[in-house]
Amino acid sequence: MDEEITIIDSNTRNERIRNFFINNKKNLLISFSIILVSLIGYFTLEEIKIRNKIKLANEFNLITINFKTEDKKSTIKKLTDLVNQNDTTYSPLALYYLIDNNLLESKEEINNLFNALINETNLQEEIKNLIIYKKGLFNSDFVSENELLQILSPITNSESIWKSHALYLLAEFFYSKNEKEKAKKIYKQILTIKNGNSAIMLESQKILNRELSE
What we know:
The structure is a single chain. The chain is mostly helical. The chain contains ten helices and no strands. It starts with a helix and ends with a helix.
């Protein structure tokens, strides 16, 4: 008797499953098609990203290899175009190369490229903060106090790993202008950061002890 009941239950369950697939055949086919298309689209997009990354890598390497022999204007244009590709790896590298080799004379143009990286490139948060810090470092020799504070504010108002670097840059900025009280305040602030850079914290403490202890 129990075996018969088991067989009936099994047949009933199988019948329900069969009926479910029959009754929902159209919806299941549509769902399967959507999933299949989505998977194909995803892997196609990933393949395009990989090919584009390889292409940009080859472009950057070729530009830097030919830097000494190629026309300067051509090098600048190619690197600027590469920055404007908004690639997370090679756009920052292209800008750093322009700056490190003094290829661009216009500070405004360099800042525009920094802004393109910061505002238009899909960077990880701490990579973006690093670029903001580098922008502040680049501008620190010629901008006003308020301008430098504004540039670095996304870092100094956060818990970024680059916060101690940004604050140290501000402290050095004030110290170079003989605004020792402002510098002292920021050096002290550096010492309170939980995830601050140990070398920067040590140097800040030394400066406070040696030069700003009054």
